[in-house]
Design goal:
single chain, 193 residues, mainly alpha, 2 domains, 6 helices, binds iron/sulfur cluster
């Protein structure tokens, strides 16, 4: 059957990297799971055969352990992979800071900080996320946000910037300012995050 060579060129590179990431994680997880299962099975059978534990008791304890692990997995997934907040980012006004007047001092250092994306951010498909750390905002090698203009330090996705960017208030963040009102930035800005 003839191959359509153009199809490969249409593949979204980000999607391709994401799929590789997911497949690698799934492969590693499956191997670890199989290894662990084999150990637990062998250990359980050994203890039952030796008369040290009852099979019914093992099943009962397995059920309660499963319930605990499901709850724990839910909390971890919600808290780390996604921003749990469901606020509509377009409803957020955020702090009023005259960034243009301070950008020469702060060098847009707020855009070096780690940002977790919301489901709304992800659903829009505009803001890029880090394939190696889903779903955090993607940063460049130098630590700056993927969407920050390297020269002007302005945001390239300002109209659709993430919820966290809209809510963030640098005025009381000592990582950015020694004294916001006196316009004294933290001398270690370039080392962020
Ligand atoms: S650090 Fe503060 S003043 Fe500077 S660009 Fe960010 S929000 Fe604006
Ligand atoms: S998305 Fe925009 S506002 Fe948010 S960190 Fe990146 S450049 Fe800064």
């Amino acid at each position: 059957m003839a191959m359509d060579d153009d199809k490969g060129d249409e593949t979204d590179p980000e999607l391709a990297r994401a799929l590789v990431y997911v497949h690698q994680k799934l492969g590693v997880g499956l191997l670890q799971h199989q290894e662990l299962s084999a150990h637990v099975y062998a250990l359980t059978e050994t203890l039952i055969a030796a008369g040290l534990i009852e099979r019914d008791e093992v099943e009962r304890r397995k059920d309660s352990a499963r319930e605990l692990m499901v709850e724990s997995a839910k909390a971890h997934w919600e808290g780390v992979e996604f921003l749990t907040e469901e606020t509509d980012k377009y409803e957020v006004t955020g702090p009023e800071i005259a960034c243009a007047e301070r950008i020469q001092l702060c060098r847009g250092a707020c855009c070096r900080l780690e940002v977790h994306l919301s489901r709304q951010d992800l659903a829009e498909g505009v803001v890029r996320w880090d394939v190696g750390r889903p779903y955090t905002l993607r940063h460049r090698e130098d630590g700056s946000c993927h969407h920050q203009d390297p020269t002007t330090k302005s945001c390239g996705v300002h109209g659709q910037r993430p919820l966290v960017c809209r809510q963030y208030d640098c005025r009381s963040d000592p990582r950015i300012w020694i004294d916001f009102e006196a316009r004294v930035p933290n001398p270690k800005l370039e080392q962020l995050p």
